[in-house]
Specification:
Elements: E1 14-16, E2 28-32, E3 35-40, E4 45-46, E5 48-54, E6 61-67, E7 83-92, E8 95-103, E9 113-120, E10 131-132, E11 141-144, E12 150-157, E13 166-175, E14 180-189, E15 198-205, E16 208-215, E17 223-229, E18 237-238, E19 245-246, E20 256-265, E21 271-278, E22 291-298, E23 316-318, E24 333-334, E25 346-348, E26 357-358, E27 366-369, E28 382-386, E29 391-399, E30 407-416, E31 419-427, E32 433-441, E33 444-447, E34 453-454, E35 460-468, E36 471-477, E37 482-484, E38 489-490, H1 496-499, E39 501-503, E40 506-509, E41 516-523, E42 530-540
Antiparallel strand pairs: 1-23, 2-3, 3-5, 4-25, 5-6, 7-8, 8-9, 9-10, 11-12, 12-13, 13-14, 15-16, 16-17, 17-18, 17-19, 20-21, 21-22, 24-42, 25-28, 26-27, 27-42, 28-41, 29-35, 29-42, 30-31, 30-41, 31-32, 32-33, 32-34, 35-36, 36-37, 36-38, 39-40
Length: 541
């Protein structure tokens, strides 16, 4: 693994949380030699399983994602906030092992959580064909014991009415040579009174097996629970002092929803916990940035329970005594000069493949062939990047000659199929090329015909989408300077909280992904329309 920058001498410095800003939940942290990796959930977005790399736990660089092909995961038809849940990255016997869940549903007590395992000698691949594991529950993870055996842990889901859907943490042996699960699955932990026990990770230290789980749900009551046993199959006793980490009951904290943790040991024997957090715009308010990744220092004397100082997520944490290793800063502007998309971009429900994305047809342009409507779940054409700050903007220049009202290209502030804002070029009935604005709030669309702009016959049009705290604003440039559309749109509808919907006690929709800024092209008539984007600039305050 190339380091790109020579390491600097270690100095007193801090980890500033969150270390991964914007939509980066359910972290699995791993150290291999001097390299640290964070794998995170991606749900309906490609590349599946976000991957970041560090040498000092302070500076992180994106490596894109691991699951980049339909061979590894097919997200066609994937529902909002379905898809890749809670990946687990481990290293054993000269191979990286990645387990990930492809969750197909969460309605009426069902999840349909198919689990897969892939391996690679290098974190950059190539990755093996997936081994199909069980579908007993999501949040599956591997544990490699000191005797050479490997075990699969997961939530044991229970679909039966009147039962606890979170039926406990189960374990089953995985035969690496035969690439299959063997023996019976056993429940080893039913959780604490916090309930909703999920996200297991298992460690062996000082003669104990240590089981780390997430409890309380992934919102305000989230927590990290630790239990231990002398034996692999238990019984496991939870720490009698309570959770290792939580922000429950502390609305004053900047970092909320603290939970779903994973431990890592440094080269010097220090321990750290990677976990998810969220930053609401107001106390216990909407979290437009989604669930993010933070890191806490863990004190873990031999044979004793691990603790996080204060038991709550800290904004800054002492960094390990490692050489500082910053990475080159990402340019604000992507000129689309490379053969593939930058690692900062994600694509919705289909990989960034040349059947709809083209970086070679015009040098320094991204050509996007139009896809389905906002509700289409098979072939949408949306290239987007995570919103990582309360105040940020995406600017681009597009060349687009729509034939009629069925062809649209522009910029979007996006959450999911039912919550988004979109400024786009299209063709009016009278033949004019126009800019129009459309919003969608829980599936209810709002048009702004009074804001329609005659785009004229100029080839190039500048478009901008900007987050200003709880407000989204759009702007355009027809060659005579930037102008803002005179309307403030609600940014908080692009949040996990707003997207979640419970009907008669059952979840009708969940929100797990956070907001995006993106380039969106629709060809609703399937007539072969495409748009060319000259560049895209992302800036944040």
């Amino acid at each position: 693994m190339s380091t790109e920058i020579a390491p600097l001498p270690a100095v007193t410095r801090s980890i500033r949380n969150p270390v991964l800003t914007g939509f980066h939940p359910d972290p699995s942290i791993l150290r291999v030699g001097d390299d640290y990796y964070l794998a995170t959930s991606t749900f309906e977005w490609y590349p599946g399983v976000g991957l970041h790399h560090s040498r000092d736990l302070v500076h992180w660089r994106p490596l894109g994602g691991i699951v980049t092909e339909r061979r590894l995961l097919d997200l066609r038809g994937c529902g909002d906030s379905n898809g890749v849940w809670a990946p687990d990255l481990t290293w054993h016997d000269g191979l990286f092992h990645l387990v990930y869940s492809d969750v197909a549903s969460f309605a009426s007590g069902y999840w349909d959580p198919q689990n897969y395992l892939i391996t690679a000698p290098d974190v950059g691949g190539p990755w093996s064909d997936p081994v199909k594991l069980h579908a007993h529950g999501f949040d599956a993870a591997l544990f490699h014991d000191t005797d050479g055996s490997t075990w699969l842990l997961s939530l044991s889901a229970d679909w039966r009415p009147g039962r606890d859907r979170f039926g406990g943490i189960e374990i089953q042996r995985y035969d690496r040579e035969r690439q299959r699960l063997v023996g019976e699955a056993r429940i080893i932990f039913h959780g604490t009174s916090a309930g909703l026990t999920e996200g297991p990770h298992l460690y062996r230290r000082d003669g104990w097996y240590w089981l780390v789980t997430a409890e309380g749900g992934t919102s305000w009551e989230h927590q990290v629970t630790v239990a231990r046993s002398r034996h692999l199959f238990g019984p496991y006793l939870a720490d009698p002092r309570g959770p290792l980490l939580t922000s429950t009951g502390r609305p004053d904290l900047r970092l909320q929803k603290a939970g779903h943790g994973c431990l890592v040991e440094t080269q010097q024997g220090d321990w750290y916990l990677a976990h998810l957090v969220a930053r609401p715009y107001s106390p216990l308010g909407n979290c437009v940035l989604g669930r993010e990744t933070a890191i806490q220092r863990v004190e873990w004397p031999a044979g004793q329970w691990p603790t996080v100082p204060g038991g709550v997520p800290a904004d800054t944490v002492p960094a390990p005594d490692l050489p500082a290793h910053p990475w080159p800063e990402e340019p604000a502007t992507d000129h689309f000069d490379g053969p593939t998309l930058s690692t900062r971009w994600s694509t919705l429900r289909r990989p960034a493949s040349d059947d709809w994305l083209d970086l070679s047809a015009r040098p320094s342009y991204l050509r996007v062939h139009g896809g389905q409507s906002p509700v289409g779940r098979q072939t949408p054409s949306l290239v987007a990047r995570r919103v990582s700050a309360e105040r940020c903007a995406l600017e681009t220049v597009v060349e687009f000659d729509p034939a009629d009202h069925r062809q649209l290209a522009g910029v979007t502030a996006y959450y999911n199929t039912t919550n988004w804002h979109h400024l786009y070029l299209t063709r009016a009935d009278d033949g004019r090329r126009v800019l129009e604005l459309l919003s969608c709030d829980r599936g209810r669309r709002t048009a702004y015909p009074e804001l329609t702009v005659d785009a004229g016959d100029g080839v190039r049009v500048g478009l901008r989408a900007r987050f200003d705290g709880p407000v989204v604003r759009f702007g355009y440039d027809l060659g005579d300077g930037w102008r803002d559309l005179p309307v403030d749109l609600d940014a908080t509808i692009l949040s996990d909280e707003h997207a979640a919907l419970v009907v008669d006690g059952e979840p009708a929709a969940w929100g797990f992904t956070g907001a995006f800024l993106g380039l969106w092209v629709q060809d609703l008539g399937g007539d072969g329309a495409h748009a060319d984007f000259d560049h895209a600039t992302y800036r944040q305050e």
